[in-house]
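Hey, I'm writing a tutorial for new members on how sequence and structure tokens pair up, and I'd like a real worked example in the thread rather than a made-up one. If someone can provide the structure for the chain below, I'll link this post from the tutorial.
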Amino acid sequence: MIKKNIDKLFKSLLMLFKDFLISLFTKIYMPQKIHASKDYYLNKLIELKEDLQKKNIINDLAYKIPEDFIIDLAYKTVIVRKKSKITIDHGMLIYSELSKYVKQNKYIDLNIVETGTARGFSSICMAKALDDTNQNGKIYTFDILPHRKKMFWNNVDDLNGKQTREELLNNWKTLSNKYIIFVNDFAHTAIKSLNFKRINFAFLDGSHYGHDINYEFGEIAKYQFVGDLAIFDDFDSKNYNDLQKTILKKIQDLNYEHTLFKVNKDRYILIAKKI
């Protein structure tokens, strides 16, 4: 009872100060400055291509996203200045898993939820999967970062000045316009307001705090039926131990089976299937 009251109070405070918090977190997570030179981004692109050639991941997946497509997308949306290794494994995986889900399940329309839009990489990968399989559906992607506000994104296009995410994704606007709905809000409070009848597929890569995943996945799971999927990025005991423990407990409590996809020695992606 005490926990429920605390959760209710937290949600009330979040709604009360939502606009302020969105503005604050945007400034924290996306400092408004140019982060690197063009040479830096080009060198990282070369490293990414070389790394991709060394991996067998593409051969191991049931459905393969076109390599040129994902490399071009990654250059604009994944290659950023950061300390950790840049990878596009999650994009290839969710493309394959969503394509497989479509082939195994014949539905008129699909509802897909993503938490953590960032620059739009994973949303476009999922839109590509829907398009390549001729599947109707919508991807509802949630993030506190606004879609139509000009800002720096810590990517190569920053060198041309501030832009919106919509402008950043201009090369993929056909896919974006057809499949993606961008929601500028906190996922764990906004998902409920959309009144889903079903969420067939979900990719969770937003907040990496256990309590946020508890809210987000708890809400998503209410709308998932047998065979539906929820995929969790950064299933990482080294950096996100609280997140990992929360996910494992939640999938057990909510009746999901799971498999792990290895990205590197510390990082996995967890694929949970409703049973």
